[in-house]
Amino acid sequence: MKASNTQVMVQAYRLLVAKMIESNRNYPLHLGVTEAGDGEDGRIKSAVGIGTLLEDGLGDTIRVSLTEEPEYEIPVAKILADRYTKRNSHKAIPEIKSTLTYSPFEYSRRKTNEVINLGHHNVPRVIADYSMKEGVTAASLFGVGYMYSVPTDKWNLTDMAVDYIYLGDNIIDFEIPGTLGLIYNSENWKYHKDKDRTYPLFCQDEYFKAEEKSDELNFVAVDINSLTEEFIQKINKEKTLF
Length: 242
Hints:
The chain is α/β, with parallel strands linked by helices. The chain has six helices and ten strands; from the N terminus they run H-E-H-E-H-E-E-E-E-E-H-E-H-E-H-E. Strand 7 (181-185), helix 4 (186-189) and strand 8 (198-203) form a beta-alpha-beta unit. The protein has helices at residues 6-22, 39-55, 73-85, 186-189, 206-209, 229-236, and strands at residues 30-33, 61-64, 127-129, 146-149, 154-157, 164-168, 181-185, 198-203, 218-221, 240-241. The strands form three sheets. A six-stranded parallel beta sheet has the order 3-6-7-8-9-10. The chain has a two-stranded parallel ribbon with strand order 1-2. Strands 4-5 form a two-stranded antiparallel sheet. It is globular and about 65 Å long.
């Protein structure tokens, strides 16, 4: 039993196991994402689908199916399997006795606020990290789907065009494409806040202490392990993504 859609695959296997437990049956499971694709996309899809079920403790055999020569599939499958051969000495993982807070057989997106083109019903957005580059020029954007034509003085977008670029403490001193947003570290943003589509990035509690914020969109980097319900409630009232 396989599927090319990772959500369908994961939910189908979980339902199958639930039915086997219900009917007191136990058959071996062969896991695979059918025709996952090639390159990075195919490897990510395989890891998402197969890896999710392996983390559930499900699966007896696996098969990685890439749109490439078969010899390229084996190393990917081995990496996925090796993760579990190194777990012999780990402490026992407590059994999950209740899943009342969510359904393992259904997928639903976390409810979020809509801010510009992010959150709520919008599709996921892609952010490219240019914070470590020594300098950012128009040519630097070629690798993230934006190609500048000198003769026509226009930007041409490809299907791989990102939605935002995180610049950190870098700067951009040229006219950017109309579909692109720029994210600066909060202190650096103060020098560029009057430009269109420029937004600050704050570090957790720094956001609430900041004297200047964007009226449109603010990004907040948080430590997941230190998140509190109070912080989440406060941040959800703001024009913020974290």
